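tool_log.txt
---
The assistant was asked to compare two proteins side by side. It first ran the structure predictor on the initial sequence, then on the second. Raw inputs and outputs are pasted verbatim so the downstream comparison step can read them without reformatting.
(1)
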Amino acid sequence: MSSKTWEYQGSYLEQFPVKTHCTLVNLFCFAIREGRTNIDEILAEVRRQVKRREDPQRGSHISRVAAEILESLGTDEAYWFADHILWRESLSPEARERLQKRASGEYALKAMDQKKPSEKQLAFLRARGCKEIPKTMADASLLIGEYKR
């Protein structure tokens, strides 16, 4: 069993604005789906696509981000990111779905870890005689899961 996760664990995407992450991931996926099977081919195709899409008429921000992407494609981090996406694209549909669901659940728990438990959660736990007072929404969710089993 592989220890890889759906989400890339490196820092490649962190250097770019969050709103560009999906587009960047899709560029790598499209390169693979178009038949690129090794990392150098994938990076070359992403470079070609960024250059093709880059439109100086759309403003300096777009051009700056495109330039940063092009510059980043020669780094080790881009290499490992391409390797990760190549691995993801090689998964069976069932394995993809399983990893996506797990990542979605982890993302939700991480978001709930920043919030206080809701009144509805606390009421559910009190109604079942729970003496523990959860500090976060995530803690409450885990406790509720235990009571539901």
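(2)
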Amino acid sequence: MDARSVRSGNCAILVLPMATNAKQGHRLDDSLTRKNNTHTKTDMKTNTEMTALITAMPARSAWMRGVKAYALEMVESAESELATVADLKKELLNGATNWREYSYGGCALIYDADIAERLCSPSEYAKTREGERAPNSRETWLDCQARALGQAATLIATVLKEGSK
């Protein structure tokens, strides 16, 4: 295998010859391209376009409506255009290392009642006494919110990659 280096602007790019994986029958560099998910300028969506696509997605449950609301808030609060999936998580986490830290750090809703109102159906909301009771035996409302935020980030990544579901 012979590798060569190519300069592109301020970056040096290492070009490797294509290799195949005989067992799986696909090119090894295909998996790298899929993981990087880089987009060209023509594939970029503005935050306004992404907001419109997320708003148009169906949300049949209270949970999904809450996830959609978090996704819309995150896209609107993004300081720059979300160009690639690689940049997406870093931009959306706003300095936190994961969604739990983001939730517990006060970057999203902080009151249990507000979180419960966003993520629960009216009957579930009443059953938890408007957020006074924990959502289940294993989580607090902030943990529940962290889970929803992770799903919202996945929703945004899906919209960024595909355009819409």
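---
observation on (2): The first helix runs from residue 28 to 36. Strands lie at 4-8, 11-15, 20-21, 26-27.
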